[in-house]
Design brief:
Elements (H helix, E strand, L loop, with lengths): L1 E4 L6 H8 L5 E4 L5 H8 L4 E4 L5 H6 L1 H21 L4 E7 L22 H17 L5 E7 L1 E3 L12 H10 L5 E3 L5 E2 L1 E3 H13 L5 E5 L5 E2 H11 L7 E3 L13 H7 L7 H14 L5
Parallel strand pairs: 1-2, 3-4, 4-5, 5-10, 6-9, 7-12
Antiparallel strand pairs: 8-11
């Protein structure tokens, strides 16, 4: 196994642990540089493409977002096609739906991307189809919903709200919620995400996008209340008047269930407990 990473969001300890495993090679490089991607792709049978700049940053810096998320993806797929890679699993996103008109949201729902990040993720799916028609490349695009879990970074509010809230609570501060907290997310644990990626790699299905979520909505206000109870704290969330980007999110997971046999196995309560335990072990939460 070979991992290409620019170490921008890398946990040095996690990277060192991976590099120490038998059969694992960690290469420092960036998907924006075609030569680095081509070198990392040499002799590879299958690729899992996870590199991206987060949604929030794409709003403040669209140029960098498109450079990484779109041109970087093009570099990955071009190298894969020319190098004879058999299969690519592409990390797409539920954000391509924008404010979905129906819940739970099916893969056939017309996309309505709201940011450069979302636009690039959708374009990546179209690039997969383009390269597959010109090579023997098979592929699946996994549209991740709101991923959370131990070890998550906090540089993107909408994808790390769990950790953002917990770190405020650990500091004795109340969670800050945009709007009235009625916006909902479909939280899916990173363990279930990893399992979906593995099953996608092993599958023979090709040429389609699959939602990866739970189908369950959790409002941000309910999330904050759950975490406050879990830590036994006596605080109330702070609500700040602010427009929210997406108001509702829940995945229709019928297609991935039928195609891969995948279903989520970790409920929200168990998943949040795993994050809390990790923060306690690392000393970030007492």
């Amino acid at each position: 196994m070979r991992i290409l990473d620019n170490r921008y969001r890398c946990d040095p300890k996690a990277a060192a642990a991976l590099a120490a495993l038998d059969g694992v090679e960690v290469v420092e490089g960036d998907v924006r540089y075609a030569n680095a991607v081509e070198g990392a792709m040499r002799g590879v049978e299958a690729v899992v493409h996870l590199a991206a700049v987060c949604l929030n940053k794409s709003i403040s810096d669209p140029t960098e977002s498109l450079d990484v998320n779109l041109l970087g993806t093009q570099n990955v797929l071009d190298a894969a096609a020319r190098g004879g890679v058999r299969r690519v699993i592409h990390a797409s996103s539920a954000s391509i739906y924008g404010n979905a008109t129906s819940l739970p949201t099916h893969e056939d729902t017309p996309p309505s991307p709201l940011t450069p990040y979302c636009t690039a993720k959708l374009a990546g799916e179209h690039l997969l189809s383009f390269y597959a028609k010109r090579s023997k490349l098979s592929w699946l695009a996994l549209r991740f919903f709101n991923v959370y879990g131990p070890g998550q970074q906090t540089d993107a509010y909408y994808t790390s709200v769990v950790l953002t809230f917990l770190r405020r609570l650990a500091a004795g501060e109340a969670p800050v919620i945009d709007g009235r907290g009625e916006q909902s997310m479909d939280f899916v644990h990173v363990t279930d995400i990893a399992r979906a990626v593995g099953m996608a790699l092993d599958s023979t299905a090709s040429g389609m996008a699959l939602n990866v979520g739970t189908g369950c909505q959790t409002t941000i206000a309910d999330l904050a209340a759950h975490l406050i109870r879990a830590l036994g704290m006596d605080v109330q969330p702070i609500f700040r008047p602010r427009e929210v980007l997406v108001t509702r999110r829940a995945a229709d997971i019928g297609r991935i269930r039928e195609t891969l046999g995948w279903e989520p196995t970790i409920g929200l309560e168990e998943g949040l407990a795993s994050v809390i335990e990790h923060l306690k072990v690392t000393g970030e939460l007492n």
